[in-house]
């Protein structure tokens, strides 16, 4: 039976898509909405599961048996079982009702790999067990305990660089008995940044001036633009002594003096590669240089970053690379 | 739901599987006492073994083992019960299949199926035992399968205290389901006739009095303390020594066993004369799956659905499969059959001459001594009185059972005494017969009824005397008067190892609760249902009415539950009436193209409006100013002001400039 369902899955998906396009009111298609999103009774839906239907049939059999034998204690037990299942809908509903999606954040991810999108639910007043977040094809189970922040991590495939919108996420639970599926759609108006795919087996960093895309830059010590007045707490090694003598006051270098020469990673210097390939190689080089704690300059069409070093610089560069227009 | 598939196909972890095994074990436990020995203990071992091995490694037992086991089970059930239909073989089969299903269960989905099945097996135990305590225990045991379902939910097993959580949720569900269950229980239309089979009429062992008697056959009955019936007397109960409830009259003796013999309808009903001390009373009989209706000596007429036998015993047309109530009328002073037909006299004097030669010789000796009827009876009773002891554990008897009893063992209980006495009488030429039934009982002052237990089963004798007809003689009373005066429990106290009076009293008090259970729950049939609802003014009840009532009750519960479910979480923010009116205005203008946004204040909105319309609008500006004054002014706006603002918003005509 599972196989039969699987065969009809694409058809079902197309039908659902059609229904949502034509009948947005009926299918409760939700537009992206700003965070935080609180689930309330107007957006929570309940349907029995297959197991619930089978269990209902079983209860009906038990009921018929008890009635046939005129056996009231058996009937009472059957009614109690039915009553417990009846109440389970509401227990499940309470698990979803009032749940608040406070924040969506994502870890670093490059195109071609999976991005871990974290749905953050701030601490609530109830235990909500056995919740699942589903964003096809990703799915994750999580629990939100009373007074604690809950995080559901969805591992979404990141195919291309740039902004990835996680889209609609179904928050679903079959708690407590698995007889009813209770769900709600959330469509947070957020996007996560996917960095470009780094070239695998990229050539080594272009330290030599003779290599494509890289040139040594002389230290611009006396460049007045890089100097400012000395302030207290500036380390002595930042003092530009020669310039200080010339100007007769203490001057400090704006940027820490880099070890000799900065590395320049230049988009335009990469000849013979396509647009995306250049981005891939530059990404790989940015990662390499950062891993080796080397200062570098990234030069892209119309913009340039650095020379600098550190996580912030790396993030700026990767972000710029990710958001370069597609050719 | 396609999305639920991945988790449903995962494997249960150890904790989930343990709870699953517990759920199966709890379902099997109430069946153990009835299951044959080849099935019950092996099933428990199988479940325990599976749980233990599964803790080491996840594996499914190969179908090469399971299928033959299932076949073997089916075969053995057929051999044991003759078929697979009916309650007993059905339940045995269900128990076996449940344990076998556990062997192959290696996915969450299968585990859920097992839980559902175990709930079914749990319920089927009540088809055999409807006692109050059993029902309460089994209803409480529902918590276990429900907890198993909870722990099968994702993340629950990883919770800090998964078992506590699962059982708490399961128990809560059972308790919270109680109102719905009770409503359904009271309102579900009962069947007037069974859909299939004849309830209670299967091969299940019958309990209560047997229609034949041989010394020793009643032993099981006499130690059975379960209630046999309850008797409600319209005017006080008769004296304990008069509380003889006759059920069966045994005429024929083949040397070993007393049987009823010919009971056909052509036998004339024995006439009752001079009936005095008439009692009107009701008996509520626990199910025995037999026909007898024990009635106070002697019943005068048969109630509906029963037949009065020629020897004044009452038999129900249908076996008593459910607790049944009968209204009866009896006399305790009477003369029964003052004239015997020759056929009756022949039957009442017959005895096999090949057995018990010493007894026959004793009787002949009495006759030779010229003793009359009364003297023979008195002599026989004196004989019993002299050197006989009353015991529930008499020595075994051989071929000449009455000889051995009278001259050697001299110990026994009512069966031995009545059997030997009647034999002696017949051998002496006095017509006599054995009567079995119940004698005495425990008077429950709380419920005002006489509780008769199976242990009150008794056998006595009737001898026919000229002019007086059949006269009851109880030889047991000659040996153990307190058996008749105070009941079976007093007579048996010697062999009662646990029996402190305190415990017995407690149990007797508890019978009031049991009685309530029997009348309120077990006997709750279509008739009682309409009586109950009649009290609330609902008469001429049909199934449709009941279903309508049931639907109504469910709707009420649905509303209560919904209120509970949404409590504590607010719906979408609606704001107060003032904001609602303001929002209406904003929405109306938004439809005409005035840009609105959530962070827009009233002045921003006014500016946006003016920009769109290109000119100031006095009415609109007045509305904005009023909103600002009401919303942000120092004084709290009055309800009247807010209503007036709402009215004016409704009256406001959007100027043509923003069309």
Shape, per Cα inertia axes of chain A: elongated
Strand order of the largest sheet of chain A: 2-11-10-6-7
Rg of chain B, Å, rounded? 39 Å
Reading side by side through the largest sheet of chain B, how are the strands ordered?
11-6-2-16-15
Which two chains share the most extensive interface?
A-B, 71 and 79 residues
Total beta strand runs of chain B: 18
Number of helices of chain A: 7
Q: Termini of chain A, distance in Å?
A: 47 Å
> Uncertain regions of chain A: pLDDT < 50 for 5+ in a row?
209-221
- How does the major sheet of chain B shape up? 5 strands, antiparallel
DSSP strand content of chain B? 5-15%
| Coarse structural class of chain B | alpha+beta
The chain-level mean pLDDT of chain B equals 83
Helix fraction of chain B?
40-55%
Distance between the termini of chain B: 48 Å
User: Counting H and I runs of at least 4 residues, what is the number of helices of chain B?
Assistant: 25
Low-confidence stretches of chain B: 1-7, 199-204, 493-499
Mean pLDDT of chain A: 83
Shape of chain B: elongated
H-E order of chain A:
HHEEHHEEEEEEEEEEEHEEHEEH
Radius of gyration of chain A: 30 Å
Mind explaining what this structure looks like?
The complex is a heterodimer of chains A (327) and B (659). Chain A is built from seven helices and 17 strands. Chain A has 327 residues and is an alpha+beta fold. By secondary structure, chain B is an alpha+beta fold. Chain B is built from 25 helices and 18 strands. In chain B, a hairpin with a 4-residue loop joins strand 4 and strand 5. In chain B, helix 2 packs antiparallel against helix 8 and helix 9 runs antiparallel to helix 21. The radius of gyration of chain B is 39 Å and the shape is elongated. The relative contact order of chain B is 0.07. Chains A and B meet through helix 1, helix 3, helix 4, strand 6 and strand 7 of A and helix 1, helix 6, helix 7, helix 8 and helix 9 of B.
